Amino acid sequence: MKVLVIGAGPAGLVFASQLKQARPQWAIDIVEKSDGQDVLGWGVVLPGRPGQHPANPLSYLDAPEKLNPQFLEDFKLVHHNEPSLMSTGVLLCGVERRGLVHALRDKCRSQGISIRFESPLLEHGELPLADYDLVVLANGVNHKTSHFTEALAPQVDYGRNKYIWYGTSQLFDQMNLVFRTHGKDIFIAHAYKYSDTMSTFVVECSEETYVRARLGEMSDEASAEFVAKVFQAELGGHGLVNQPGLGWRNFMTLSHDRCHDGKLVLLGDALQSGHFSIGHGTTMAVVVAQLLVKALCTEADVPAALRSFEERALPLVQLFRGHADNSRVWFETVDERMHLSSAEFVQSFDARRKSLPPMPEALAQNLRYALQR
Ligand SMILES: Cc1cc2nc3c(=O)[nH]c(=O)nc-3n(C[C@H](O)[C@H](O)[C@H](O)COP(=O)(O)OP(=O)(O)OC[C@H]3O[C@@H](n4cnc5c(N)ncnc54)[C@H](O)[C@@H]3O)c2cc1C
Asked: Is any ligand 1 atom within 6 A of the Cβ of residue 242?
């Protein structure tokens, strides 16, 4: 069996590594668009302690402590400049995205999986289909610009808010969510530490605020300085660091109503991306990768495996999309709730996803199934 994976991000890497472990005799190649050094983004949160939670990709590394993960149990929501402290409900693990991706790539290479960098595949005609039994499209939201097959063209929706992903040396010991009124405008920060020296700091605001504050007309540095002033109470004199390639943008949701076509199958953000306010994208990438490994290891052939995979994966990614969309829309319409008392505001925040079956149970159920091979 020969497998080609397009994209060396968490989805493609966890899939390749887990499949190689289950079927060492199968040949797996990965092609990656970037040069192998750059990884976009600062830190992400993942569920649980490495080694104890199979949806946490650090669980598949030999020495996860080298990545200096940070554990977060508390949640702080600031509204009307009043902090409300709560529990996150689950233990969360903050980690640097770059370190995680590099460690997963090292793990794949140590298992004999080849990774070819600076090798973007974008068109159907570029796919070496005759050489492989299965081609896994794990190219993230970049899948939007790929033309592999009409059947796997994504539905693309853009969020209404503008957002930007900064890093900062200010250390946020809890998951922080800050709603700040600034003149007529509302800015929202999502912040938490992901190493003992750095935190993620994602900021969002409405399109109207973005235009009124002239953020689109400023240099990256001026924009970071402006936002740092808005959140000076939280940043305590620390600045915001901009990463090239991570400017202001609208969140892109990619969705599909199918997972495979012929030999091609989708994984990770390429299959379904979901708003960062629920922080589940990497977790979903891991669980869906495990479902594909399970199907390939238990079904008689590739077509049967892809049918079985789709039956399991589609309801899960649709649930993920429901949670992510509900959350995104709550943030996009927050101006309607800013007048609430802090207690009412927290209640509304908590209720935003309550109409849907909970994600942790759905993830745990699918993982239990996937890991029985
Ligand atoms: C602001 C923000 C905050 C987030 N916070 C969290 C969080 O806290 N927790 C969480 O779990 N998730 C979070 N996410 C989501 C998470 O980053 C993604 O869900 C996750 O990276 C998906 O992994 P992936 O492998 O599918 O895609 P990616 O990580 O995007 O990897 C895709 C890879 O494919 C490569 N590629 C692209 N096109 C091609 C091509 N044509 N040929 C070859 N290679 C190609 C890319 O270079 C990249 O290396 C966040 C996302 C954002 C935007």
From this structure: no
Ligand 1 atom closest to Cα of 45? 8
Instruction: Indicate if ligand 1 lies below 6 Å from the C-beta of 57.
Output: no
Atom 37 of ligand 1: nearest residue by CA position: 139
pTM of the model: 0.97
Which atom of ligand 1 lies at the shortest distance from residue 280's CA? 11
**Predicted local distance difference test score (pLDDT) of residue 89:** 84
pLDDT of residue 69: 97
The whole-angstrom separation of Cα 120 and Cα 231 is: 39
Which regions in the chain score pLDDT beneath 70?
A: none
Q: Which of 45, 102, 142, 266 to mutate to test the pocket of ligand 1 (most atoms within 8 A of CB)?
A: 142
CB of 121 sitting under 6 A from ligand 1: yes
Residue 80 Cα to chain centre, angstroms: 29
